Amino acid sequence: MKVLSPSAGRICDIALVHFAERGYDASSLNDIAVVAGMRKPSLYAHFKSKDDLFGAVLDLALATERQYVEDRFAAAATSPVGLDTLYTDHLAHRYESSAALRFLLRTAFFPPAELKGAVSTGFEAYLDRMRELFGISIKAKYPALSANDLTIFQDAYIGLIDSLHVELIYGNEHTYRRRVAALWRILGDSLALAAGQVARG
């Protein structure tokens, strides 16, 4: 992520909320400039185009949410909590409170055609890091799991995350809560079963 001047950073913060609420196509550089208290030509002194600003906002959102994920997994690693608290325990609240996450999910599901490659690359790297952190967590809890089992459970976890992301965008809180409980029940039971089979040899 490139270093931004304070003015450019403020524009990015405003644009993040704007893009999160309206999406790429319905967003207006003029509207963003007005909220930033400047004229549109002044915005162009910091960003050469809408795509340039959108790319900077994408970098900001990815960095913000990656750090949030790192913090959630680090907190879970130092407290006696179940695996079902890994990231998903506060996800619905995070979606409501974080324009970065709302922007990221909206952009990942509906990327601007001309920026699809950058969006896909960034979002996949974000999910890959989450997958890696989950692997570290379950390896610490179930050290006897085989590498093959670990890979399967990491993939299942990302499937769980994908499902919850869809529910956040299209569903409601009640359905989200039901889904997260059901998915964790299946994943948790499967992990315990696999670990038990390994322990029994």
From TrEMBL:
**Xref: InterPro entries:** Homeodomain-like_sf, HTH-type_TetR-like_transc_reg, HTH_TetR
Q: Which Pfam family, just one, is annotated for this protein?
A: TetR_N
Q: This chain belongs to which protein, by name? A: TetR family transcriptional regulator
> Any keyword DNA-binding?
yes
The organism's place on the tree of life at top rank? Bacteria
Residue intervals of the HTH tetR-type domain: 5-65
Keywords carried by this UniProt record: DNA-binding
Q: Which residues bind DNA?
A: 28-47
Please tell me whether the keyword rRNA-binding is annotated for this protein: no
GO molecular function terms noted in the UniProt entry: DNA-binding transcription factor activity; transcription cis-regulatory region binding
Q: Gene3D superfamilies from the entry?
A: Homeodomain-like, Tetracycline Repressor, domain 2
